[in-house]
């Protein structure tokens, strides 16, 4: 479904700030794969997501979706097939528009936006039905501006919107990181439910190791722009956060050793 | 009084255009100073050459929209700061407007214009005011309708949260260009009607127009609120009329027409500064729950999400 082939990206090349964000990264997701991505800050997790979404253009390599090379397509063109939820709960919705208007925007993903009314009675019923899944009572507040909702409510709505028109791939960028534990739990639960129901191919970045192990059928660990660990479902079920931390420790240790050697 | 009302209703179309860029797209577009005159110049030269005045007024919309297109392209494809893109188009249009008119002004006295036809059918009393009320409302309703279509919602979201709407496969560049074209089209059309109302097109008639539009939007929305689009556009229309009446009062009080630009500037400055002043805050806090609508309106002009915050506080 998603093929990332030999992709590299360097920020600020040729300057003192040069940073290799991705180094020859290759990654293949089969339809229905739910991959969690972990790694320390600056490991390149978000850069992978942004490269797939088209927000960042890679220096080298190819990104293809469903067999089609999308490397040259712009962000909004790729978005016809890519659903995204951002870390910032404010980022995924339009605050001055109402809940039903936001859903109407999501509903039209990848289709022509013409001069038909955005919200009709039939659509409203469909939106209300879809909102019930969230169990937040938002179906009774269709005409409320999204800016008045709490962060958790907005993030749950963002998730619903991102998956509303069945994208080919769903990208989740630490989408529970900015929420309190309860809300994070709710959004994680909803994520599992929606992904399972629709069989979405999903790439989820997270800082939370428990979450990374608990969710999805595959786990990837990144470090300094490379994928250093790729764990399948069977192995993943045996792993514990402690194992992952040990793995992190090994890499850090190695990096430390190199440095000591150089000195 | 009648003239002030009539002018206010015509300028309401300008205010709707400015509302579209300034509030909906969150884009301070100075093109309007130029496109207003372009509309007036185009309509005037066509009318003088015997073209049907309604057709000429329609052509003014097209020319205004083209001006908006240029600003839009400069901003989106050329990556030029929005404010600067508008100024560049506005300055360039000055020369173009002179070329269109072939001089600094074109008198329309004795020509068949939309306004002369209005006078034939409705005279120059309250009936004509009613006709213009209907015209302004038609434009308001068309804008309301457009903003609630799929395309219009995408346009609103572009001004509200660009990152989000791009992630739903909307080209924000195209939306901004569309908004700028519509806005300047409306302004060009209003310019054409103003020229026909005053009986001439003049190269200087667009100077400071952005302030007129802005004052109408801010004053109207401060008094009548901005909760939903339908309310906000109504507020904008009424704001334009109130602004024109205020100008009339100032003139009656003995001020010179040449002082009006300064008055507009001071009015806008006052609307932006007053809410920041502690005394005013205390006064309005007592008067209303939370913050005043004027405060919210002024802040929404300065920052993007402010009016939402304003509502949260109350």
Q: Which structural category fits the helices and strands of chain B?
A: mainly alpha
Low-confidence stretches of chain B: 302-314
Number of strands of chain B: 2
Percentage of residues in strands of chain A:
15-25%
What is the 3D shape of chain A? globular
Question: What is the CATH homologous superfamily assignment of chain A?
Answer: P-loop containing nucleotide triphosphate hydrolases
How many domains comprise the coordinates of chain A? 1
The ordered H/E elements of chain A are: EEEHEEHEHHHEHEHEEHH
Beta strand % of chain B: under 5%
Count helical runs of chain A: 9
Order of strands in the sheet with most strands of chain A: 6-7-8-3-9-10
What oligomeric state do the depicted chains represent? heterodimer
Overall pLDDT of chain B, averaged? 89
Can you describe this structure in just a few lines?
By secondary structure, chain A is of the alpha/beta class. Chain A has helices at residues 45-53, 75-78, 99-107, 121-132, 151-162, 181-198, 209-214, 233-238, 241-262; strands at residues 2-11, 19-29, 34-39, 60-65, 68-69, 82-85, 169-173, 201-205, 218-223, 226-231. Chain B is mainly alpha-helical and 314 residues long.
Task: Tell me what the structure shows.
Chain A: InterPro entries: AAA+_ATPase, ABC_transporter-like_ATP-bd, ABC_transporter-like_CS, ABC_transpr_LolD-like, P-loop_NTPase. Chain A has 263 residues and is of the alpha/beta class. Chain A is built from nine helices and ten strands. Chain A has one domain: Rossmann fold (3-Layer(aba) Sandwich), CATH 3.40.50.300. In chain A, 37% of the residues lie in helices and 23% in strands. In chain A, strands 6-7-8-3-9-10 form a six-stranded mixed β-sheet. In chain A, strand 4 and strand 5 (68-69) form a beta hairpin. Chain B is mainly α and 314 residues long. Chain B has one domain (2-313): ABC transporter involved in vitamin B12 uptake, BtuC (Orthogonal Bundle). Chain B has helices at 2-24, 32-48, 53-76, 82-101, 114-122, 126-147, 150-160, 162-166, 172-198, 209-224, 229-252, 260-273, 278-287, 293-302, 306-313; strands at 105-107, 200-202. The longest helix of chain B has 27 residues, at 172-198. Residues 302-314 of chain B have low confidence and may be disordered. Chain A binds chain B through residues 53, 74-77, 79-80, 82-84, 86, 90-97, 101, 104-106, 108-110, 113-119, 145, 147-148, 161-162, and chain B through 146, 148-154, 156-157, 160-161, 163-172, 305, 307-308, 311-312.
């Amino acid at each position: 479904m998603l093929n990332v082939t030999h992709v590299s990206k360097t920020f600020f090349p040729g300057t003192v700030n040069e940073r290799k964000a991705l180094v020859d990264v290759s990654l293949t997701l089969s339809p229905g794969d739910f991959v969690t991505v972990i790694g320390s800050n600056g490991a390149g997790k978000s850069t992978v997501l942004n490269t797939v979404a088209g927000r960042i253009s890679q220096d080298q390599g190819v990104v293809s979706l469903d067999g089609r090379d999308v490397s040259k397509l712009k962000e909004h063109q790729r978005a016809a097939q890519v659903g995204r939820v951002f870390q910032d709960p404010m980022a995924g919705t339009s605050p001055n528009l109402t809940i039903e208007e936001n859903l109407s925007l999501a509903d039209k993903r990848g289709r022509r936006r013409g001069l038909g009314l955005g919200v009709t009675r039939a659509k409203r019923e469909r939106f209300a039905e879809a909102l019930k899944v969230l169990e937040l009572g938002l179906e009774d507040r269709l005409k409320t501006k999204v800016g008045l909702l709490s962060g958790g409510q907005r993030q749950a709505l963002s998730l619903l919107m991102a998956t509303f028109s069945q994208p080919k791939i769903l990208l989740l960028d630490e989408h529970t990181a900015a929420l309190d534990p309860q809300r994070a739990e709710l959004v994680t639960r909803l994520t599992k439910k929606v992904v399972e129901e629709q069989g979405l191919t999903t790439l989820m970045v997270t800082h939370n190791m428990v979450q990374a192990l608990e969710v999805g059928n595959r786990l990837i660990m990144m470090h300094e722009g490379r994928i250093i660990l790729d764990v399948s479902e069977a192995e993943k079920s045996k792993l514990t956060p402690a194992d992952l931390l040990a793995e992190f420790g090994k890499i850090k240790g190695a990096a430390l050793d190199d440095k000591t050697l150089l000195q | 009084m009648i003239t002030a009302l009539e002018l206010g209703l015509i300028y309401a179309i300008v205010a709707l255009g400015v509302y579209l860029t300034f509030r909906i797209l969150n884009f301070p577009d100075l093109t309007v100073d130029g496109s207003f005159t372009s509309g007036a110049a185009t309509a005037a030269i066509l009318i003088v050459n015997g073209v049907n005045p309604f057709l000429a007024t329609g052509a003014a919309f097209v020319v205004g929209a083209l001006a908006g297109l240029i600003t839009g392209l400069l901003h989106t494809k050329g990556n030029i700061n929005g404010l600067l893109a508008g100024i560049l188009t506005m300055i360039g249009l000055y020369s173009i407007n002179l070329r269109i008119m072939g001089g600094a002004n074109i008198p329309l006295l004795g020509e068949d214009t939309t306004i002369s036809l209005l006078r034939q059918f409705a005279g120059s009393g309250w009936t004509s005011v009613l006709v213009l009320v209907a015209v302004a409302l038609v434009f308001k309703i068309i804008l309301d309708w457009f903003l609630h279509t799929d395309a219009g919602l995408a346009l609103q979201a572009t001004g509200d949260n660009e990152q989000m709407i791009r992630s739903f496969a909307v080209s924000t560049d195209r939306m901004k260009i569309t908004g700028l074209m519509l806005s300047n089209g409306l302004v060009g059309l209003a310019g054409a009607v103003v020229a026909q109302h005053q009986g001439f097109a003049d190269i200087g008639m667009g100077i400071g127009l952005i302030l007129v539009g802005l004052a109408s939007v801010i004053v109207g929305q401060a008094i009548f609120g901005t909760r939903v689009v339908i309310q906000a556009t109504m507020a904008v229309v009424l704001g334009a009329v109130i602004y024109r009446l205020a100008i009339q009062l100032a003139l009656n009080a003995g001020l010179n027409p040449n002082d009006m630009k300064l008055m507009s500037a001071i009015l806008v400055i006052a609307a932006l500064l007053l809410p920041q002043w502690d005394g005013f805050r205390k006064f309005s806090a007592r008067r209303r729950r939370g913050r005043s609508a004027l405060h919210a309106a002024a802040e929404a002009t300065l920052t993007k999400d402010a009016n939402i915050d304003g509502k949260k506080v109350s």
